[in-house]
């Protein structure tokens, strides 16, 4: 029989429970990870890697030096683990003296391979891959692979920023673009009689959106289209990751011309480009397709330090704090395949749809539903519900805000930065990240099903047409 002291020691090892979302994302049906790709301006010198990980990365959060285990009641908890850093650092070897094009191909294949592989459950759920070869975008590339059970994009970005400094002056803090979210207080002095219709509209939208979300998460699937194979086990298939870069100044010009938000413009570009791809790949131009738009549910305007995030009752807590909206990808007003659609209608429709859905409480109700499912049928069954939600839609869109200034990782200036969510049961995943005045869009596509270069061309075409149409508006 174990002594009380030994039992107490074991209890201390298992004191931090895994969050509900962490359990869903690391379950028998879901294993979702984030690849964060840092492009170095200079060749990568990895001699300080181990000290950086030991002294800076691991202390960021106890989860980086813990494994996920189940107690005797089946409840998952984080258990402190003695990390062997060599198990987590990978430096692939390729032939030397090749062209940039060859190394681009090697990097793309390498990203596809590590995206497909599951992280071992026997050690902490993260890895670092150092690609020490020049490509067209960088002199060297560092890839952080982090399991989504560790936290959402906001938390993981905050963790990465803790390892980075401003390239121009490490003593100064990084700054971020100002975000202007609609305030709950904006209408506090609004006339009561004007507020009643707004309340009724919000209530109707909540019922409609929540009901539609329930259907999409259970029995209503999107059509099979050029962006949705609907194949079982699509999350286990190889992916191709491509990126597109746009100027934030150009996006802001569109935003000003149309009187919308930056997110409306970006989402409109994605929707228009997706429809152009579908139109060019199929005669069926009115197929029903849904995007899951991920939202950070923290009521904040910028990143907090990791120390602030892990405090009890933090304003911006560490973990998975997000919800999702089901947004139907707008169809062109004209059903004539020979008639070119109006580029601006996609931005304006995106604005209208997302504004309406943001005014409803469907995201909060969905969160309550997931929590109720977890309590009554368990985290594994809830994970299956989330898997179906993802599988039944066509694509996922998520975005993060990066710093205005150039960053450096261990004296390596970072010239480019993007991320990709992998392990999702969909054929198409799109992420966006702003950095140094640029918006980097990363596109993850099912290999052999979606044509990545063609899709990229459609997104670029959509941007050019929207930019041109916006500048033709007389102000």
TrEMBL record:
Annotated Gene Ontology cellular components are: endoplasmic reticulum membrane; plasma membrane
Q: How does it sit in the membrane?
A: Single-pass membrane protein
| A GO BP entry | triglyceride biosynthetic process
Reactions listed under catalytic activity: a long chain fatty alcohol + a fatty acyl-CoA = a long-chain alcohol wax ester + CoA; an acyl-CoA + a 1,2-diacyl-sn-glycerol = a triacyl-sn-glycerol + CoA
Places the protein is found: Cell membrane; Endoplasmic reticulum membrane
Q: Which UniProt keywords apply?
A: Acyltransferase, Endoplasmic reticulum, Transferase
Q: Which GO terms describe its molecular function?
A: diacylglycerol O-acyltransferase activity; long-chain-alcohol O-fatty-acyltransferase activity
Question: Which InterPro entries does the record associate with it?
Answer: O-acyltransferase_WSD1-like, O-acyltransferase_WSD1_C, O-acyltransferase_WSD1_N
Location of the O-acyltransferase WSD1 C-terminal domain: 318-466
- Specify the pathway: Lipid metabolism; Glycerolipid metabolism; triacylglycerol biosynthesis
In this chain the O-acyltransferase WSD1-like N-terminal domain maps to 78-266
Pfam assignment, any one: WS_DGAT_cat
Q: Could you say which protein family the record assigns here?
A: In the N-terminal section; belongs to the long-chain O-acyltransferase family.
Protein name (Swiss-Prot/TrEMBL): Diacylglycerol O-acyltransferase
User: What is the native source organism of this protein?
Assistant: Acer negundo (Box elder)
Organism taxonomic ancestry = Eukaryota, Viridiplantae, Streptophyta, Embryophyta, Tracheophyta
